[in-house]
Amino acid sequence: MDRAPNQVVSARPLVRAGDAALAARLQRELRGEVLFDAASRGRYSTDASIYQIEPVGVVVPQTEEDARIAIQIAAELGVPILPRGGGTSQCGQTVGAALVIDNSKHLNQIISFDQAARTAVVQPGVVLDQLNAYLRPHGLWFPVDVSTSAQATLGGMAGNNSCGSRSIRYGNMVHNVRGIDALLADGAEFHFGASDQLAGAPRAYQALVARVHAIVRREAAEIEARWPRVLRRVQGYNIDMVQPGAEGAAQAHNLAHLLVGSEGTLAYTRRLHLDLAPLPRHKTLGVCHFPGFHQSMQAPQHIVKLAPTAVELVDRTMIELARGNAAFKPIVERFLKGDPDAILLVEFAGEDRDEQLAKLRQLVELMADLGFPGGVVEIADAGLQKQVWEVRKAGLNIMMSMKGDGKPVSFIEDCAVPLEHLAEYTDKLTQVFAKHGTRGTWYAHASVGTLHVRPVLNMKQDGAKQMRAIAEEACALVRSYKGAAYSGEHGDGLVRTEWIEPVIGARLTRALEEIKDVFDPRGLMNPGKIVRGTKQDDRSLFRFKPGYAAQPIDTALDWSDWNAPGEATHGFVAAVEMCNNNGHCRKFDAGTMCPSYRVTGNERDLTRGRANTLRLALSGQLGAGAFSSAAMHDAMDLCVSCKGCKRECPTGVDMAKMKIEFLYHYRKIHGISLRDRLIAWLPRYAPWAARAPALANLRDAIPGMAELGERLLGLSARRSLPKWRGDAFHRDPTLGPEAAPTAREVVLLADTFTNYFEPDNARAALAVLQAAGYRVHLARAADDGRPLCCGRTFLASGLVDEARAEARRTIAALQPHVERGLPVIGLEPSCLYTLRDEFKSMLPGAGTDALAARALLFEEFLAAEHQAGKLNLKLRALPQKKALLHGHCHQKAFGAMPAVEQVLRLIPELKVETVEASCCGMAGAFGYEAEHYDVSLKMAEASLLPALRKADADTLLVADGTSCRHQIHDGLEKGTCAGEAGREAVHVAQVLARALAAPVG
Ligand SMILES: Cc1cc2nc3c(=O)[nH]c(=O)nc-3n(C[C@H](O)[C@H](O)[C@H](O)COP(=O)(O)OP(=O)(O)OC[C@H]3O[C@@H](n4cnc5c(N)ncnc54)[C@H](O)[C@@H]3O)c2cc1C
Ligand code: SF4
Ligand code: SF4
Question: Which tens digit of pLDDT belongs to each residue from 839-851?
């Protein structure tokens, strides 16, 4: 389908009728994935902005050739094209009624690296952290250190002309890209590079360069008069940088610089040629304290004269948020003096340590000269510096977790003003916010006059009106400062394209349109961004469009925590809507979130993908019945309920809880399979199975039974099942009657898995507690004598009513102990934390809260006692001198890893190391299920099993989760390294018990 040149694309796909034909053709001709179903299109309809536009479809190219063919087919059919990386843009650059080309899954290779020349060539889907991890051993890095370094792709960074905290030293993306291999919408492919490479370039390319140069030469005077002058000027196309004699004279005609910041509107980047920088060896950090915000904004113009690498602002709101956070409070106390209104984090970096220390002293003197003697906390320690930067990042995260319909919105969040105007600009804009009944928190890049601020607006109601009013005043303010830029970091997209003209004028705006037409005369590349855009406040393009309403559902769990005070929101929907698409869940190295995405690379298998699917389904955008549809089930299927997102998602999206809610409703319609019943009801039939363990274990004893089990039940034949034991802990004849009360009493709660599959762990815990002088009560049910259960297996199948019955029974049985204030100690993380987490959602109330407050993991209890100086445990050295620890995801989610490390370190001479790994992949029953076996093992192979394989034969492997231990057993058994088969991981209680029993000497 042909369109007239320059036609603005509407919010609705233009080729709806032809979608099927387009999809069929793409499917025929591509090796990669072609996603045209409603749920997939929905998942690609948002980025980290306020907008939502459904794409025509999505292509996930497997090869560069795939991408080329997709662009060619789209061009032939006149379908707009939208290249995409991590989709973390804040301005709507990455949403549009186009064929989305997602480079992040496969086009992520580092093609070449020249250490001597300090250059690299990469595909567009390479993530910044991935590149820097590769470069680190060579003493180099790519220095555009965006906050989203763990998810931002180099293609997306180039698209947005991204900038990092240290741009004052290293510049923006445009200063670090030396060339781009790009495809135009008409299929032409060129290397865009420095002008000295022009000779010998294809004629068509030379013609294109000549046309661009003719425009910028013609506009030289206007550019000189009107173009922003600040370093952080990322509005429009970089026409100022491709003029003869422009900034960076050596590459004055480098046309790649025009593609940088073009937001996918000029060409598709196939490969990037990057300049690299040496990693500085030494860094120092000065924390400058200011009694007033205004003073903190006057100081940067002076501080930058000391040539720092970063000057970052943290205002009072953020300081208070960090102080109120238990994890960060101790760090804040280390670098904060008194009660400042704002601080500036000033970093110096370079090769010479003394030089950086001297810079720090100069900073101290400067602050004294500015009237703030003693106003600097000097930090030379690299560890503390890292923690300070983490606090700075976390403040933003906490701010983003604001509940309710009012949210901090990005639309004037990155104006860049010359430093001499910074104080006045922030004062005036704060007044503008107040005038419009809102407020904003200020933070970020004071060094370059780019401060982030997001007024709190309700985009479901009158937020659009306030947004326009504030934007108009902010734009006028920016214009009043000569050389200032309306966007200094995040670009134009849908939110700021209309604001280019007021800043640079009509003439230059027409020139940008001419540039667009030189590259893309049919207007196919990401239309509506940078030129010929829509109105910022066009609500038909919003995520929350007029009429947006989520259908309230009768939830099985309590979601009232997500209701904002005084707002009658529907908790579950509000919880789902917390996802603002920032993409933090696309991490692939540190932390846990999100294990399924880490192995599949699919947007669908991401916390964000799930939250978006839920939001679209609940608000009727995926059709009737979508909430309990197969598509919804597909999106939830690989969520292993690790709770990684509950802890690590900046806005606290708790997908594990959402999955329970979803499954509850799904089961109501679709019923429950025999396999799921077998797993869910395990705690109920366990006492019977354990009476005849030989019979119960037959499946793994008789050849062919496992295969039959897979066919009939769907339990993978490649897995052994946990072995039933005849000596269940709760039936242990040695457990005597409970003794009289003493001051050192605890309750031991043995869960179903410990009781019936690994009773030795409970015996070990009992021995340790008793050796430490505690009188141990065993948690028992008041009714039928069946052991207590947390209901986890029921929850995993969405059987909330059955789980609630177990919770009620457990709470009742433990109530007498809880009322006496006794700690309730558990061994299995997923079971114990159910008492602290899901119980509150199933049975909110004082009794549940009281139990939750007393429920502790074995290691948490011992660590707390140790810290309080109350632990009297005599341990001896073990033959093994090293323990390699794998944390259960729920231990990590609830911050219990320091406790288990601390407790292991009580053993003399034992060196403790924790494996940096996400979920082991077993995740309860997940890894036993035939259809999940491969994904499950891939999760384990991502980092856990390789790390364990490297361990010496006499290293202790410690894992507190029963399913983690099983996965380690299976994974190492199937391994090929000599000596690895047969290695088992053990519970920390077992390790401590061995240390109790170890001989002296
Ligand atoms: C919490 C948060 C913090 C942020 N912090 C920063 C920050 O510190 N500094 C900063 O600069 N930005 C920041 N951003 C914005 C964003 O993360 C960056 O701009 C990032 O570089 C975008 O990378 P991406 O892979 O997500 O790109 P995407 O959002 O996927 O794409 C960005 C643009 O590039 C285009 N594009 C992508 N791939 C190609 C290609 N192959 N060819 C042509 N065009 C392409 C897209 O069409 C789009 O216009 C932040 C965003 C969030 C949510
Ligand atoms: S789920 Fe959380 S981390 Fe992921 S995009 Fe949404 S808000 Fe960000
Ligand atoms: S619970 Fe775990 S697997 Fe599920 S979405 Fe969250 S991080 Fe991903």
Answer: 999 999 999 999 9
Write phi, then psi, for 407 (nearest 5 degrees). Answer: -135, 155
* Nearest-atom index, ligand 2, CA of 581: 5
pLDDT higher than threshold 60 for residue 11:
no
Model confidence, pTM? 0.94
What is the best residue among 605, 654, 655 to mutate for testing ligand 3's pocket, by most ligand atoms within 8 Å of CB?
Answer: 655
- Is 961 exposed, middle or buried (CB count within 10 Å of its CB: 0-12, 13-18, 19+)? buried
253-292 pLDDT tens trace: 799 999 999 999 999 999 999 999 999 999 999 999 999 9
310: which 2 tokens?
């970063």
In this structure, are residues 655 and 645 in contact, taking their beta carbons and an 8 Å threshold?
Answer: yes
743-777 per-position pLDDT tens digit: 699 999 999 999 999 999 999 999 999 999 999 99
Nearest-atom index, ligand 1, CA of 157: 21
Residue pair 881/909 in contact by the 8 Å Cβ criterion: yes
The pLDDT of residue 979 is above 70: no
Q: Write out residues with Cβ below 6 Å of ligand 3.
A: 593-596, 607, 610, 639-645, 655-656
CA of 749 to the centre of ligand 2 (A): 35
What is the position in ligand 3's atom list of the atom closest to the CA of 640?
3
The CB density around residue 483, as the number of other CB atoms within 10 Å, is 16
Is the Cβ atom of 583 under 6 angstroms away from ligand 2? yes
In angstroms, rounded to a whole number, what is the distance separating the alpha carbons of residues 595 and 919? 6
Question: Which residue has the CA at smallest separation from atom 2 of ligand 2?
Answer: 649
Read off the tokens for 831.
Answer: 């079971």
Mean pLDDT of 119-141: 97
Q: Give yes or no for a contact between 542 and 464, defined as CB atoms under 8 angstroms apart.
A: yes
C-alpha–C-alpha distance, residues 831 and 837, integer Å: 10
Is pLDDT above 90 for 663? yes
Task: Say which DSSP state 47 is in.
Answer: -
Q: What type of residue sits at position 605?
A: D
Neighbours of 187 (CB within 10 A): 12
Q: Is 607 in the pocket of ligand 2 (CB under 6 A)?
A: yes
User: Which ligand minimizes its atom distance to the CA of 86?
Assistant: 1
Q: Going by DSSP bridges, is the β-strand pair 745-749/824-826 parallel, antiparallel, or unpaired?
A: parallel
- Whether the Cβ atoms of residue 410 and residue 459 lie closer than 8 Å to each other: no
89 CA closest ligand 1 atom index: 29
Q: Residue length, the chain?
A: 1001
Ligand 1 centroid to Cα of residue 938, in Å, is 29
CA 253, CA 195: separation in Å to the nearest integer? 5
- Quick one: tokens of 569? 């929101």
Where does residue 224 rank: exposed (0-12), middle (13-18), buried (19+ CB within 10 A)? Answer: exposed
CA–CA separation, 911 vs 907, rounded Å? Answer: 9
| Residue 591 confidence class, pLDDT cut points 50, 70, 90 | confident
Determine phi and psi for 118, rounding to 5 degrees: 55, 55
